[in-house]
Design a protein that fits this description.
44% of the residues lie in helices and 14% in strands. It has 13 helices and 7 strands. The protein has helices at residues 5-9, 25-30, 51-59, 73-89, 105-112, 118-125, 136-150, 161-170, 172-176, 180-183, 196-210, 225-251, 270-278; strands at residues 39-42, 63-68, 93-101, 153-158, 255-261, 284-290, 307-310.
Length: 316
């Protein structure tokens, strides 16, 4: 799934969910088509783009945000290519990712310095099955290793899930009361309001309840606003933490490529908005990797990504 939908319906906000389909991760990514075979579009105009044009835009961006579907192997292959291109174009670069949390930073840095082996790094970060069984090594580790070869930073950008859950169930007051060492692991937005992020979360919950989230559930009434407030607080902790993690690295002189679930970049809200607010003047490029085989760009429902890639081969 591209969104947090089924987990919202279960009442536990846990991130951009992957589906439960059986996938051999290594085989799936090995069979991914080359980017030049996919349908790629300018997000604003809908005009077709080729892969070389994508790489040119990546080379001229200060910060690239890439939105994936977690169980889409072709999206992961594209991410590897985008990260490699970004690192090659920017001598001072950092790879920022959703899939590691701020309290994973020390273990990540140890691995990058060659002070720990791969298995120790994966065990320390509990990453081996991040998007399903045995997904980390074929789908996410190549981005870490590209950064290691380039001597680039890897930013463990996300908030630990225990704090995201606490935001939903107990509110921001419980988070801000924590001691400084824990407060450093996440960000809260005390000016949060029922904004565009709130509206799209509400629309998502309504949509997922209407179709029973694919689990045979019967449709239920629309969610009450207070329920969406809870989910919104949690989502904002994720997005603000990742956005400001990347923004701090940018302020320190690094150009940023940030990879995360597509819901976090939707309509240029979420993480993108948090980063943009903290980095006025940064040239931001947003790339949405859509699991579709359409030959034309899907109609935009709001401010779009700059580049939209359909990750399945075009239909005949």
């Amino acid at each position: 799934m591209r969104t947090i939908g089924s987990l919202i319906l279960a009442g536990t906000l846990c991130g951009c969910a992957a589906s439960s389909a059986k996938i051999d991760p290594a085989r799936a990514i090995a069979q991914a088509p080359h980017p030049s075979a996919l349908s790629i579009f300018d997000g604003a105009t809908g005009s077709p783009l080729d892969w070389r044009q994508v790489l040119d835009q990546v080379a001229h961006a200060d910060a690239v945000f890439v939105g994936e579907t977690h169980d889409d192997a072709t999206a992961h292959a594209l991410e590897h290519a985008l990260v490699d291109a970004f690192l090659a174009s920017h001598p001072s670069a950092a790879v920022s990712i959703e899939f590691l949390e701020r309290d994973d930073q020390a273990a990540t840095d140890q691995y990058l310095r060659g002070e720990s082996e791969l298995d120790a790094f994966i065990e320390a970060t509990k990453s081996r099955h991040w998007a399903g069984t045995d997904t980390w090594i074929p789908w996410y580790q190549p981005m870490i290793d590209s950064a290691k070869r380039s001597k680039a930073r890897v930013i463990a950008a996300n908030a630990p899930r225990r704090y995201v859950s606490k935001a939903r169930t107990e509110g921001y007051e419980a988070l801000t009361a924590l001691p400084p060492d824990e407060r450093a692991l996440f960000e809260v937005d005390e000016s949060i309001s029922r904004d565009g992020d709130w509206e799209r979360l509400k629309a998502l919950v309504i949509e997922m309840r209407a179709d029973g989230s694919g689990h045979g559930d019967s449709p239920s009434d629309s969610p009450i606003d207070e329920e969406i407030d809870q989910f919104h607080r949690a989502q904002r902790v994720w997005d603000r933490t990742m956005g400001l993690s990347a923004a701090r690295a940018y302020a320190g002189g690094a150009r940023i490529i940030h990879v995360e679930g597509a819901f976090h970049i939707g309509t240029r809200l979420g993480t993108v908005a948090q980063f943009a607010a903290a980095t006025p003047g940064a040239k931001i490029l947003v790339i949405d990797l859509v699991p579709s085989n359409l030959r034309t760009r899907a109609p935009a429902t709001g401010p779009s990504a700059d580049i939209v890639v359909h990750t399945k081969l075009p239909a005949p």
